[in-house]
Amino acid sequence: MNAPLKTLKIDFVSDVVCPWCVVGLGGLDTALDALKDEGIAADIAFQPFELNPQIAPEGENIVEHIGRKYGASPEQSAANRAMIRERAGEVGFDMRMTDDSRIWNTFDAHRLLHWARETGPGQGIKDAQKALKQALFTAHFTENRNLTDAGVLTTAAEKAGLDRAEAGEVLASGRYAQAVRQAEDLWRARGITSVPAVVVEGKYLISGGQPASVFEEALRKIASEV
């Protein structure tokens, strides 16, 4: 296997309650694995985007939420979940959303993700932010956990190899709130209105939960241009 010759900077703008972000990350990972032998690697930073910043603390039933927000019937909502479940399965993710699942406010999750990228290297954890992102995806989509619950969030941090006690301190203190708000404002100002949005080298945009082949082709082309 060749050593990476070119490392692309990738900003993965997403929310942890976005199912297409699960699909997109899986496709991106598969593409990057295929590109290793071509000397193409990536430094991925997960950037915050809240799909439902005004949602109530108790969350909202997913069927009611999708119906209210998009006008989908319960039958349409179920069919959409089945389709997403299939796409997620193709990238190795076990998605178990049901009619009883809930959508949650994710601001605290984004604060922890910011902390993970900042503190992970100091704790000797490679790709700590990505590990936490994946743990949060699992907590929400596979285990149907409450993402506003500090215990759920600190458990996800622990599963990612991060210090659970420090994660709890971050949540209790409100640390990184301003940094997350500023990042959200920045990406909105740059025109990001839906996720996942994969921004490569600050200027190339790949939108949506694309399959690996789309990411692979796009990243190969970008690598040849930068």
What's the name of the CATH homologous superfamily of the largest domain? Glutaredoxin
CATH class of the largest domain: Alpha Beta
Q: Which strands sit side by side, in order, in the main sheet? A: 2-1-5-6
CATH topology name of the largest domain, in short, is: Glutaredoxin
What is the N-to-C succession of helices and strands? Answer: EHEEHHEHHHHHEEH
Measured distance between first and last alpha carbons:
22 Å
Query: What is the helical fraction, as a range of percent?
Result: 40-55%
- Mean pLDDT, nearest integer? 95
Please state roughly what percent of the residues sit in beta strands, choosing from under 5%, 5-15%, 15-25%, 25-35%, 35-45% or over 45%. Answer: 5-15%
Oligomer: single chain
Task: Enumerate the spans where pLDDT stays under 50 for 5 or more consecutive residues.
Answer: none
Count structural domains.
3
CATH architecture of the largest domain: 3-Layer(aba) Sandwich
Largest sheet: 4 strands, mixed
Labels describing this entry:
226 residues, alpha+beta, Glutaredoxin, 3 domains, four-stranded mixed beta sheet, two-stranded antiparallel ribbon, globular, Putative DsbA family dithiol-disulfide isomerase
